[in-house]
Every structure is written in structure tokens, then in C-alpha cells.
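Researcher: Please translate sequence to C-alpha cells.
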Amino acid sequence: AGAGQPCAFEAAAGGSDFKKLSAQTVSSVSSVSFDGFFTSDYNKYELMGNDIECETSSGHAQFRTRTSDADNTGSYYSNSATKFYHDVNNENWINAANSGSSDLNSPTTYWRVDAVGKQVSADNLYTVRYVLYAPLSATRNIGEFECISEASTSMAKGYGVGVYQNTALLSGMTFYVSAGTFSGTFTLYGYVK
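Model: Translation complete:
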């Protein structure tokens, strides 16, 4: 880019319309949450988790909404998910993946996606992305989430979309794994309306 112009990546990411709101580096926690950052200035929010190191190899990437500084744990979540898989044996496939509840008429207490087993090693990639659309609207809310992880001989990306079927105004977002604790760096971004 020329003098005074944003670089190509910044322009592609929305430039000044994509704002970093908060960041946390956590160690040995069971969840990470951001609350109190939702305002009418933004119409969607993105939580990014990088350099995640799980302390157990079991469990799944799970996501919740928040209201008034507390996770929404009621049965209001449904989502669909898919997995893109690749390994050292030249095996590549896409299939429906493990989700919390894929039935709109039978929601559960979280959204879920999965990639490959989370390894207890800083040498393997594990990252998550969680996008929440229009959380201040008093309608059902839409979420989008993904997890990219690798093991010693495979890697995969889990991708999901979901509906939060409650009309409460939302105030935050939470990421957690269904078993064990983790460490990593997490950042919340807002997209200007």
C-alpha cells in the first residue's frame, strides 16, 4: 500500500471497521468469557482463540452466549456442523460432524464443533473462531464457529452455524472445552455497523 493507505490485509479485514475490543491470555482455565463489550456501535462480534494448548486430549470445542455477566446455560442452542479432514495417509474427506443439537425442535445447552483430538502439546495447532451476529436484537440470534486442530498425523477443521432460540438481549460470549482445562490467547473484535 502507498503512504497513508492501509495494508491489503487491513483493508480486507474491514480496516477501521474491524475493532479490537479486548484480549486475554489464560492459563489452566475451564472457560474464557468476554462480557460488557456489546454496544449499538457494532452489529457483530468475533472471538478468536490462538495458541490454545489443552491439558487433556478429550472433549470438544463448545460455545455459549452470555447475559448480565453469566453464561446462558438453558436449552436454547441448536447447530449443524461439518468436518474437513486430512491426514498423512492421503485420506481427505468432508462429513457431518458432532454438534450440540442439530434439531431445531430439541435444543441443548451449548453450540459444539470438533476437528481432530486436541493434543497436549504446544507443537500442534489448536485455534477457534466464534462470531455472534446482532446480539442486541430481541430476536433469536445466529452464531458461526470453527475449530482448527492438528494431531501428530492428521489435521481437521470443524465448522458450524447455530441458532440461539431465546429473545434475551445478549451481553457476551464464552468458549470452553467439554472436558479439562486449557491455556491460550483470546481476542474479542467488533464490526462497526
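Researcher: Any highlights?
Model: The two ends are 25 Å apart (CA to CA).
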